[in-house]
Amino acid sequence: MIFGVDYYPEQWTEKDWDEDLDLMQEMGLSSVRLAEFAWALMEPKEGKFDFRFFDRIIKKIESRKMTFILGTPTATFPPWLFEKYPEIVQVSKSGIRRIIGTRRQASFSSPAYRKASERIVSAMAKHYGKHPSLLAWQIDNEPGHEGSDQDYSLLAEKNFRIWLKQKYKTLDSLNKSWGSVFWGIMYSHWNQIPIPGNHLASNFNPAMIQDYFRFQSDELISYIHMQADILKQYSKSPITTNLFPSPFLAVTDMHKLFQKLDFVSWDNYPVWGNQLEPYPHPLVTSTLQYARGLKNKSFTVMEQFSGVQGHDTLGYLPPPGQIGLWLTQAVVQGADQVYFFRYRTARFGQEQLCYGILDHGKHKTKKFFELKKTIQEIREFAEDVAGVPFPAPVAILHDIENVRNYKHQPLSDGLKFEPVPFAKVGYDIEYATWFAASNLLNVNTHSLPIRTDADLSQYKVISLPLYTMFEEEQVERIKAYVRNGGILVLGYRAGIKDKEHWMVEEPVPGVFRELAGLEVHQFEAIGNNKVKLRMGLFPMKGNKFCELLEPKTAKVIATYSDAKKFYKGTPAICANQFGKGKVYYIGTSLSPESFILLYRRILKDAKVPFSFLGRSVERQTRQGKRFDYQITMNHSMKRTWFPFPGLKPFEYRIKKIEKR
Amino acid sequence: MIFGVDYYPEQWTEKDWDEDLDLMQEMGLSSVRLAEFAWALMEPKEGKFDFRFFDRIIKKIESRKMTFILGTPTATFPPWLFEKYPEIVQVSKSGIRRIIGTRRQASFSSPAYRKASERIVSAMAKHYGKHPSLLAWQIDNEPGHEGSDQDYSLLAEKNFRIWLKQKYKTLDSLNKSWGSVFWGIMYSHWNQIPIPGNHLASNFNPAMIQDYFRFQSDELISYIHMQADILKQYSKSPITTNLFPSPFLAVTDMHKLFQKLDFVSWDNYPVWGNQLEPYPHPLVTSTLQYARGLKNKSFTVMEQFSGVQGHDTLGYLPPPGQIGLWLTQAVVQGADQVYFFRYRTARFGQEQLCYGILDHGKHKTKKFFELKKTIQEIREFAEDVAGVPFPAPVAILHDIENVRNYKHQPLSDGLKFEPVPFAKVGYDIEYATWFAASNLLNVNTHSLPIRTDADLSQYKVISLPLYTMFEEEQVERIKAYVRNGGILVLGYRAGIKDKEHWMVEEPVPGVFRELAGLEVHQFEAIGNNKVKLRMGLFPMKGNKFCELLEPKTAKVIATYSDAKKFYKGTPAICANQFGKGKVYYIGTSLSPESFILLYRRILKDAKVPFSFLGRSVERQTRQGKRFDYQITMNHSMKRTWFPFPGLKPFEYRIKKIEKR
Amino acid sequence: MIFGVDYYPEQWTEKDWDEDLDLMQEMGLSSVRLAEFAWALMEPKEGKFDFRFFDRIIKKIESRKMTFILGTPTATFPPWLFEKYPEIVQVSKSGIRRIIGTRRQASFSSPAYRKASERIVSAMAKHYGKHPSLLAWQIDNEPGHEGSDQDYSLLAEKNFRIWLKQKYKTLDSLNKSWGSVFWGIMYSHWNQIPIPGNHLASNFNPAMIQDYFRFQSDELISYIHMQADILKQYSKSPITTNLFPSPFLAVTDMHKLFQKLDFVSWDNYPVWGNQLEPYPHPLVTSTLQYARGLKNKSFTVMEQFSGVQGHDTLGYLPPPGQIGLWLTQAVVQGADQVYFFRYRTARFGQEQLCYGILDHGKHKTKKFFELKKTIQEIREFAEDVAGVPFPAPVAILHDIENVRNYKHQPLSDGLKFEPVPFAKVGYDIEYATWFAASNLLNVNTHSLPIRTDADLSQYKVISLPLYTMFEEEQVERIKAYVRNGGILVLGYRAGIKDKEHWMVEEPVPGVFRELAGLEVHQFEAIGNNKVKLRMGLFPMKGNKFCELLEPKTAKVIATYSDAKKFYKGTPAICANQFGKGKVYYIGTSLSPESFILLYRRILKDAKVPFSFLGRSVERQTRQGKRFDYQITMNHSMKRTWFPFPGLKPFEYRIKKIEKR
Description:
By secondary structure, chain A is α/β, with parallel strands linked by helices. Helix content of chain A is 32%, strand content 21%.
């Protein structure tokens, strides 16, 4: 278990350094992340490298037996590079060309950017690759963030055509797959194909947009993998890159991205910018589990919230105890390295409002003492569970193809994607709401990419929301899972669109019809409205989408009960026996409370033990090398009644359990 | 009477075709619309025509004694055309240049587009013009839709200058008419004149914007008329084009557009996209009457709502009976041909969420059975009334010049135009609210362009809202109408702006002062707020705009009664005797309920029989060839109390009456 | 005291002129403003001048012993200028290039525009400079309005680089000052520096944006000063330019702008466009005082609201009495010249909805009679106080550097700048709320730029909100003020950022720590939420921002009392003795009511007499040449209870007091 901090020595004077490292060690930190935005410092002129600056600070780190993670600095680039190759920048969907002066503006399709990246990464790898204190490499910083996962430049357009040619071989094949006959847009030359950028009213072909998102993902991934290849050539240190929240903001296939990297890193900001409240704790847990699930093993929090942060506006101030609790939560959910963002607050620059552990001065803050204390309290537990597999009876599966699909075709206003700085993404919210059900019932829950290598049969219950676009192979795998006794919880609109973006001829739920034992011929997209349901005596609430279920072999679990709807009395949730297993099918998006009600029933059915200790209490179990643990956390400002004795505001309680 | 369907054989395999036509006939359909987006299919290479595809399907249609409408395919164009002539696309107001991949992007000012259109239309006309089963031609598809009524390209700018030169002859004349002396923008060369595109804060001269809208209208109309001329050369089949909702979204003069065409077509979508509720039924009727009124005779619904539709989000699900009722309503309001959009739902492409009569598969849906049943039930009635003039005691007049005027100068936030996909257009809403008054009082009501050929003297009551910009000739015609005994209902801000966009010197209502018998010297634009009024004992509500009426010879009908307004007690509605007739003048925009109260009084005054059967019931009369009819429709989910016996949800009742 | 009117003879025929001037004189007006948009009229071709038009109207003015103010016409320019020099226009932040057809589109960085301006201004100055009836010059019109204070053109970029080179001399110095090492954007050539225009996600360096704003201000000022220099060369008449509301919309340093001009002019619109209510009266007074304070002496209202106005939508209708009251308010607050906007309403052009004293015709309106009566009633008072210094015990200081700072770094959603046509500017609202406290307590209050020449020691109380970025010199001056017995009211986030945009190392309130006797280590930005406070027994409300005060030598005045906040009980307002004076420090933004409560206490402390006569009553004192005056104004539609006898709606009462 490593506790560290993100450190920017270049923002301070050399005489600060020793004092800084002293304070870090006093706090219990043993590692720093360095250099991620320092390209201009290391290559001040094209091809002229100068590592003396970082050599000096690394020497001090080494002499203290501390370690460092080195970031490749390609998330920004030096002005001289843009001056010489002005074509290296991205273009926005609405046609705005990026310029120098900010970050994340490079086009992954630019040969000049790739070449320059190769050069600086090679130089760094050669210089530092074998350094004994080098703990790991972080490639780039938050690749795809801030809209950089989608580039509409001419260079992107050019590569998109090449990518399409590789995929479809012939234009006939492309036209057929896309259904170009629709609106008569049949391409007769590869160069006629545009990039689906700005448009005025009607949109581009959805199959084309889907392909464009796949292409963009491939461009980004091949760029990161190119760096990984170079690093591996010169260094044995493990390689990662740090992901940004929210999980489904980008169109990038993060599962594929990490297949060539050694471990996953995640930047964990339960609150940011002008948010007046932090995310609900199940949303934070779901993102931590997302990070854990990408490689289905321990992960790193590369940037852990330490103080109020924002670029030009700020918000919520965490009460005493909360930042310590967030640290604990991250470790409980599988982090085995946690780096705080950041050590001391920059006095200048775009992040002069991103408060770190220290403020702008050197005064030891309350944050410093709170984090120090938490590290001391949880270290033993953390060391014991670090790297030990995180077992769970429930898993929820996500799928990047459907993330992309719902981004450009959200079906309901309630599922609309809004790329605000901290995005409200339809898929995100729906996914987190599903995740919250078992999380609030205190059942360990995994979040996995659908193409995970994990053995699905280890799970008692698998949740699969928004799986509209399907892949035959996965459908077979899931069928087998149910046939062999698993319980599948399937969401509305499942299994009705193939990988070419064609709707299937079969009624909803398409390829899952037999599994679900029902058909859907009518639906209503209710946007942000709510609809009433009833499960036995329990009232429930649905939103976003209402399918009218017609059970064939399935049994009715809940029905619509809203007097304003003509489909009052129609089934909304059904359950169907299939093989040795069972499929729950939910025709609407439930409110969090209703999800809990439903999952109580499902978990009972699956014989998974659960509990409910209130909306703000989270309880998880972990297995350690020496002990097992039950961790209970109070995520609210109020004392809790349960479990007895009640938890104080933001208290965490780690109960050690002898191994059986 | 013809019932048909919009059919895209190119989206299915040839073996589907016979099955499809079987089903259509089973449902009672005898005609299909074809080919409207199929340019690339018929001219795969420049100048190389290939009609074999449509020949095959038409042969099948013919052999079944069915008929077809043929769309010219110019609403999209083949990618090869854009590749060769990249200048053919429009540019948006904010400077975004359209590209290939969507639809409606061609610039009507582009010579290359015109030339290519001539070629494909000529080829189609030659090939199919004399086909015995060819029922009619539909030129283009929804011309002007999706923002294509306004083009800000360089080609448009060039033609705008030519248009202005033809209109004004000299720059002196243009400068004087526009009042270019204002802000000192006096043009000294034709090439100095810009297109009123993007601007940052202050706007362009309103007279210039008005001219730009007129110019755009002329460009679009001349393009459609060019196609009409070609078709007439080779074919005797009647010609139309299909209009899109909302009526006043575009700046195009649709009345003028149809003068060269044979009949009007309208695309009737009472609900679309992410709407959570359909439009109120009087709004739907007002749009049907708008379509009927353009040529003051029977019209075609070229696209009749059949299933939930949208491009990337969806909404309201019509309860059982409602789509049948909508069909009936269209026929009642004067449609003599109705084509459903669409037969089967496309499995791919931008409209894969536009659900047709069938869903993505071939399963016979509830929609199929409901529409089949309705067609059977109403066919006899429909056949009898088809083509028989639709008589009405009340007419409401609209004017494209004021549509344009209010678009760029809405006066009040309550009248603002919002070009959302399904537009909230100030003029539309105000107009429909006026229309609703007599519609809800179950009086047949016409909606006519002010320059209609219809004889106004046949109407007992004429409503004229938002007639701010006036034309001398029309003013005289209306004066004569009142002088001879007609009742005119005139709205606020009437008659105060001439065709050059100059405000008159006389006080409001300007040229209508004598008619209205009052003056207005003060007004308040209350945006989206409400204001209280009182008509005798009846409380009323006004909104959007409040004129303070100063009656000269007029009598006060209603006064402002709002304690918060200093003009409490000031007249808001007056009536004035003029010649043998009378003028009601309304100084505010009334709420729907208040309009009903007022029109009860006006209709009584005009000796027009009326009734009120509740907000959801619509009753109309029609004369047939053999019988007369009274049709009563319940547009709500609830049973009605009136008329006795009450109507079931979405029930229509067609009462046959012997001719006197 | 002069009452005049803005007159555009070029919008009327010559035969109107005599009638117009008759009416003006009948109303009591003796001066007109002319020519401000008439460049194309005076220079119809490049270098060809023609002043005959204005000669004719001026002759008539002169013959009536009236006077005129002459506007230089550079706020628009003739189309021929744009045709010849298309590069003279500005570019918006999002990259939209301005074109001809509107106004305020010229780039202050364009040499061609400067040269053409020099030529027309020189010609006017030579022709009219010594005219005996010429009262004053108005340079340009509302410079910086409508976004023209920020230009993102290539010419601006070029000049920005030159400006930076002059400021920083070397790139090392620039890189160090900006902290370019942040995100590694270290410039190695001047031409690499971009203009901080459009960006996609992350912003530009705040120090760079601050410099860009300073640069833009310098560009605009040097342009206006260039005109002033020319005018002075040929004319002895005093020079001004007219400022637009809101005070802090532009980034221009208006204090610096006026140092070379002779007097300040202000365009006073208490309501405009689609506003449904006028600004609260303290906001209007604060803007009048802003205008007065820029040179700390009498000022001119160059455009005084006379009728409902807007470009394409309208709003509020002032009840009888209100426009007369607004006129009186302007005089009371220090205006010694008032020109109404405008004489008669233009029948054409972009401002055909900007209603003047007359409407579109020549009918004498209620506005005409109301203003005529008010002028008669207040003339004696106005003549007596005109030019006599306006004494005040309280002053509030504003600072353009912080206006700029909060524009790009608002800290809290509650302080966000929104550049709507009539802007909601965070700084404006916060500043006006502070100002309102003493204004509503009927204490004469000055509003001064912090770099004012005024002697601060004359004030009993000085308010200083949002003084985050500090200047050493001003800090010393304020320290001295307090040390010598002054009372300072200091707002949250004071004194923590130096002029290079670096945050200081010291805790908040940074350089004011000793003065305030407290420290702040924690804060919360609560956006548009509210928080409860308590001052003794009085409940108060805070918003926007909450600092947690840690008093060292200060005493607690109020504490947070909100049960939802963990910092309940923490001090929110403190007071600290410093030297002979005292510092009140407010850690939050108070609601207007709470500000009044606090200022009652402060004014009592400062021994400044105050009163409270209700939210709508404003009372001020003025000293005249012969008498002193107490003026009481009722800004509401309701009769007041106080003072006795109550004031009628919109009544003003001017009480003459014998000089002691």
